Amino acid sequence: MKSTFADEIVDLLPNLRRYAFVLSRSLDVADDLVQQTCEKAFASRSSYAQGTNLSAWLIRIMRNTWIDRVRRDRTRGESVDIVDRPDAIFTDGAHDTETHLMLGNVASALQELPADQREIIMMICVEELSYKEAAAALGIPIGTVMSRLARARTTLAGKLDLN
């Protein structure tokens, strides 16, 4: 029974995997390297001279693939698997965009408030002063701070359609 090109490659897979592991020192990378080698071998099987050493041809393809990968990785910089970085921060692009737009709308609405209301909002909500501290800073009663803040919040909610 005559073996096909594919059968011969399948028979050499354990040898290829061992060599790939020697090159990469990583089972995952070795498996990727074997797969890339097989893909390239099938894509260029017309250049394989029948009767020559298939194992040597495949190893040469693998070695060249590995060298290309090392060169590419060297210019790309360090690559870190996400599994190795549990502290990596994930962002939701849609949420970030929505937040950015909302903050822009709030900033515009704040600018439209009367100066006394804008001042109270900034002191209480941004600077995080207590009502007592804001009243002392402005020289007004705490009740006035509370009523201006309530009017400012109501006006902002109306401008931002949050009612």
From TrEMBL:
Keywords noted in UniProt: Sigma factor, Transcription, Transcription regulation
CDD domains from the UniProt entry: Sigma70_r4 (cd06171)
Matching InterPro entries: RNA_pol_sigma-70-like, RNA_pol_sigma-70_dom, RNA_pol_sigma70_r2, RNA_pol_sigma70_r4_t2, RNA_pol_sigma_r2, RNA_pol_sigma_r3/r4-like, WH-like_DNA-bd_sf
Domain of life: Bacteria
Domain RNA polymerase sigma-70 region: 12-74
SUPFAM superfamilies noted in UniProt: Sigma2 domain of RNA polymerase sigma factors, Sigma3 and sigma4 domains of RNA polymerase sigma factors
Record-annotated RNA polymerase sigma factor 70 region 4 type domain positions: 105-156
Family: Belongs to the sigma-70 factor family. ECF subfamily.
Protein name: RNA polymerase sigma factor
